[in-house]
Amino acid sequence: MQKFENVQDAFKNAPMAQFVKKLKILGLSSYLLLVAYYPILLIALDPDENTTSYIPMTLFWLPMLFAIKGLIQGNPYTYAWSNFVLMWCFIHGLTSLWTYTGNIVFIIIEVLLLTGAFIGNTYFARYRGRELGLALPKIKEIKEQEKAFFEKRLKDTDI
């Protein structure tokens, strides 16, 4: 896997491996389909007219809108943090699978879209981050750097 040195807006220009492109397509398409599906699920397909659909729309759908720009641009950081928003939706979907008494097909579609978005976003952020050199340093490397720094400082103070 190549490593791109210039990390300032590198996610826009750096070459991307083919399997990383597929992960991006999986994550982005599932996420955008979910953004389109939630209003349909929570407003149009809700058979009970006495429920208030604006509460789940505010809790689940509205936070998803904040990540759309970064996902479309291909920013690996956005792909990583958007999974936190998806976790709230997973709670809704899995709870609905357990408790919903209506047509369960709509909830299964929601959980499948959530799973696709989560897998695509997670692995795209991981592999794209590695391509761009954004990975966190290993503890072994940090310890070696600290040791070299303090040994140099110790030598400088001895003189």
List keywords for this structure.
159 residues, 7 helices, 0% strand
List the secondary-structure elements in sequence, H or E.
Answer: HHHHHHH
Helix share bin: over 70%
Number of helices: 7
Unreliable residue stretches: none
Rg over CA atoms: 22 Å
- The end-to-end distance, rounded to whole angstroms, is 45 Å
Quaternary structure state of the chains depicted: single chain
What does the overall shape look like?
A: elongated
Q: How many beta-strand segments?
A: 0
Beta-strand percent range: under 5%
User: Can you summarize the main beta sheet?
Assistant: none
Structural class: mainly alpha
Overall mean pLDDT stands at 84
As for the number of domains, it is 1
